[in-house]
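Table S7 (text form). Paired inputs.
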Amino acid sequence: MGQPKLLLSSLVLGLAMLPVLSVAAGKCERLIVTGSPDAPPYLWRDPQDPKHLIGANADLLKQAAGELGLKVEVLYAGKRSQALDEVRSGRMDLLVDAPLSTAELESLDYIHPPIAQNDIMVWTRHDHSLPFNALADLQGHTGAISERTRLTALFDSATREHLTLSRMANLTQAFQALMLGQAEYVLAGRYAGIAMTQTLGLANDLVAQPLPLDKPGLYLALSFNSACNDPWLRGQLAKKMTELAASGLSGEVVKHNLDIWKAQLLQPASAPNK
């Protein structure tokens, strides 16, 4: 009789655990997400709905979260530093385009692999003849970079130590300096550079050198203070990011959003909705 009682007790205990496991896996039904408002085609403020952010990273996360049964809202939270503060505090759950930073490991869980990578290219005038394929090739030459361009910490440190690099307010100013001969090269993301040169009518004048010098990853980063941050969600998001990296879908979504951004740049300026 002892063995049947033991089996019955085990069965009852197992059944009692089922609702707990279900709640653990499903307690988070909605993720409130934010990120940089000025990082197209990965993420930028929606000109038609300025309370929200759009872009490749937003699209990729929504697809992954949808497969997990989660709803996602990607909200504008101010400039990049303000977005980081909102997620650190737990008022928002997740950053969708976080650069890997050891300083933030005390407040954020980074999901590996990254949701996207941003190839940093060397852009030059079309008639440029010198090889600019490595950091050493740029030493002794004047360059420019937008303050909005994010580099890996190691590469950023190397540029500050070894390069003569003017930091401009935006990519338009950096490319204008290149065209005026005030700089011999510009460090800029592959897709942002393509969109900007085409928008400025400089696609025949400026080109990217063949090799990227830096490949900063853009990560999903969950706040330690988010009620949604649990092992189940972290594991599922990591699985989805791994599948995404293997599928090649990220590149297609980035190119699609690049086309959207270029179309927006060509539209007449209008006052944003409030």
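Next pair, protein 2 of 2.
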Amino acid sequence: MSKELIVTILVAYFAVLLLISYLTSRNADSNTFFTGDKQSPWYLVAFGMIGASLSGVTFISVPGKVASDGFQYFQVVMGYTLGYLVIAKLLMPLYYRLNVTSIYQYLEQRLGTVSYKVGAGFFVFSRTLGSAIRLYLATLVLQIFLFNDWNVPYWATAILTILLIWIYTFKGGIKTIVYTDTFQTFFLVSSVLICSIFIAGELGISWFDLYNRVSSQPTTSGFSMTRIFQLEDPLAKNYFFKHFFGGMFLTIAMTGLDQDLMQKNLTCKNINDAQKNMYSFTGVLVVTNFLFLLVGGALYVFAAEKGIALPEKSDHVFPTLALSHFGKLAGIFFLLGITASSYASADSALAALTTGFCIDFLNFEKRDEASRQRLKFLVHIGFSVLFLLIILGTKWYVDSNPKTDIISLILTVAGYTYGPLIGLFSFGLFTKRMPINWMVPVVTISVPFLCYYLDKNAPTWFNGYQFGFEMLIINGALTFLFLYLFSKPQILQNEN
């Protein structure tokens, strides 16, 4: 695809986003920014959450890893389904009953101000780091396939990326994002379908035969690319039960205890609509993840059939083939898909971080509207700058460590930073005790370091055992245990 065509597509795409932002943010106040006036249609929320949940990491890294791991990532996806059920049945009714704007207000009502601030702080730290790393992939694709040829420095690409997000979210907030994410999810799902149909056509087979063709292709380890289950080696990171239960708790933490995705659910009119949204979203998410794995296998089959030399980094495989070797239509949809997946994740995170910080740390609800608008504006800018700095830091880290696997990096970071949130919420939900206030930050900060030490020494201490995504469970369990040890019994007046 020519550079001029790429620029034209991107300009048209963001023009539509700006139009949606204008239409949805008219007469918007701070309440609209944070809650969408609780008028969001559940089906739009459900569909739009696909893009916010998957991000550019799923779009690029999941297909790229099929060559080495086959379809084993689907073990994690299977765990997601159980996690979403827990969210729909346990957490969402709680949030609606308490009528919270920030979900961490539950911690204040149940465990006190210190636990509330600690929980909100962990969300800010986790979501800022994770979302900025995800957005790094989008900037990388633009840099490699567009701006490098024009000698545009990477930092300028990163600034442009952040600026575009800020422009279309700063006024309408979550109300705008419900609609922009729906628009962007359409291109995300369409792109993976178009690319898979193109590859099937190039291989001379029907789309329905693509799975069988991928199944005949071996991974670098020798097993079939479509192999899902790893039940042979309990010591391995990708052992089924590690992936399944790790996926379950990753979902509970990164969706149910995350202001970003829960904020969208809380814009629905009532709990029934919110639960319908969650069930629908779960079904579509499972199918979409399977499609990404199928496309990942198809990419390697296509390259082998055509004799195409692939880049060393697996994260570069999909964009290299789509933009240089696919037809124009498939290339256009890939570009729209990677842009949509990255921006849908980052824009909602930016709005959620602004909401969380304003509500949880600035006593926002006690201020007048003029003060709210001013502070919201400054906080929104502050997080945009922070995103930029983390993106630049990630670029430096990846350049220094060329074998870095972005999706594993993000999920590993989540395992350490979301574990304390699981421990805090579990303690509040399943005990009738109150933690000693000063011990809450001590425990929640110390346990991730303890888990890191455990992870690094596990192969030596436990006969070659390697921790995978189950580290999140251990992190949360240790947080719960230490909070329990440093707590006192108390019967609460406002029991859950």
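The chain has one domain: 3-403.
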